[in-house]
Amino acid sequence: MSNVILKNVTKIYDKKSVINNVSLEIKDKEFVVLVGASGCGKSTLLRMIAGLEDITDGEILIDDKVVNNIHPKDRDIAFVFQSYALYPHMTVRENIAFGLKMRKVDKATIEKKVLEAAEILDLGEYLDRKPKQLSGGQRQRVALGRAIVRNPKVFLMDEPLSNLDAKLRVQMRSEIKKLHEKLQTTFIYVTHDQTEALTMGDRVVVLNNGTIQQADSPEEIYNNPSNMFVAGFVGSPQMNFIDSKDFPYQTRENTVVGIRPENMVNGGGIKLTVDVEITELLGSEKIVYFNIGKNKCSAKLPADYIINDKLELSINPKDIYLFDKTTGNRVF
Fold it and tell me: What are the two backbone dihedrals, phi and then psi, of residue 38, each rounded to the nearest 5 degrees?
């Protein structure tokens, strides 16, 4: 059983708290994604689980065992870094085998594990090449292979796809998901990319300023955000936020109205005409920008949707979210 439990975990740097009393339970075989903007604390949290950062307060348990004072190499975890961290003078075979060799595993077992990992990751024909002879995606697969052969209880991945181009990132997302299904091991994955988070995670943990804003399934994160931060962070373009006094529909006072761009037309109910400022064509979609009062807004429309200088909005009241203007929390 490879669960990971964080109990009231805190990290303080130079008298500044960067992780604030975080508690989270990650189940055995679960794929959990930590997502948030740069500086939110997600990589620090991952490094604390790995043992690469000390904990100021709280407890971390792996497999129901407190690991606060256990050395990283004894935590039975594998860490896949953003930079791949491959040895340039070694072949793919030697890079994958390096950790096992350092642990003095016998040669026959090493070769068996390397070949198994190479088959899983489709690296068989590259085993005798050096990293400089590989593409970015192939190098990332070698880094994954080095983690796989250790058969760890938990995989930790810190923005492993951020150095790849957009097309390769999409491909590697699906490959990592397949890898998780094949290995049936606990994965904890850090990214700043909300698309990666929503498409890869069984559960998504949204962080801001060292605090968990919401930890839920991708569907719940998107459809039922707990506050304005989560609502604004997830979705592209981001949710429209409109002060209730500027909205042509009676809502609670001291609230902010939230509406996803894809729900701004053809919803019925609330009608409003706005002046179009900018239009962007994105293949099958068209993004239209406009103002409602002093609030900058956008609508996501089909590419063939015909608009001129004016756009007729048609919003279903059921598609409206309300947030408290002071706290930012969702109002139900």
Answer: -55, 135
pLDDT in tens, 218-230: 999 999 999 999 9
Helix count and strand count (H, E) for the chain: 8, 18
CB 286 within 8 A of CB 299: no
**For residue 143, with 0-12 CB atoms within 10 Å meaning exposed, 13-18 middle and 19 or more buried, which class applies?**
buried
According to DSSP, the β-strands at 240-243 and 186-191 are unpaired
| CA-CA-CA-CA dihedral for 177, 3, 32, 119, to nearest 10 | -20
Token readout for 169 is 């990132």
Contacts of 252 (CB under 8 A, 6+ apart): 244, 322, 331
Please name which of 9, 15, 26 lies closest in space to residue 204, comparing C-alpha atoms.
Answer: 26
The 10s digit of each residue's pLDDT in 178-221 is: 889 988 999 999 999 999 999 999 999 999 999 999 999 999 99
Closest C-alpha among 162, 167, 227 to residue 190: 162
* pTM for this predicted structure: 0.90
Six token digits for residue 256: 């902010």
Q: What is the DSSP secondary structure assignment for residue 301, as one 8-state letter? A: E
Contact (CB, 8 A) for 313 and 274: yes
Coil, strand, or helix at residue 56? coil
Q: Where are the alpha helices (DSSP H) in 184-281?
A: 194-200, 218-223, 228-233
3-state DSSP call for residue 193? coil
Q: Which two tokens stand for residue 4?
A: 């990971």
Cβ-Cβ contacts under 8 Å for 150 (sequence gap 6 or more): 78, 99, 100
DSSP, res 182: H
Residue pointed to by tokens 């065992």: 65
Task: Give tens-digit pLDDT for 121-144.
Answer: 889 999 999 999 998 888 888 988
Q: What is the largest CA-CA distance in the chain?
A: 73
| Burial grade of 280 (CB within 10 A; 0-12, 13-18, 19 or more) | exposed
183 alpha carbon, distance to own chain's centre: 20
